[in-house]
Amino acid sequence: MKVVGEDGVGLGGIALLLSRGDKQVITGRTAPDGVYAFKGLEPGSYQLGLPELDMDAWKELSTQTLAGDEGKSSSVASWQRAPAPAEEIEKTHVIKQGECVGKVAEVYGFFPKTIWDYGKNAKLRKLRHDNMYILLEKDQVVIPAKQQKVQVVATGNGLTVQRLGVPEHLRIRFLHYDETPRVGVRYFLSLTTDKNILIADISSETDEKGFVDQPIPPSAVFATITLNPGPWPEVHEFNIGYTNPIDTVSGWQARLNNLGYDCGEEDGELGPKTRAAIRAFQRAKKLEETGERDELTKAALMALTMA
Question: What's the structural domain count of the chain?
Answer without folding.
Answer: 4
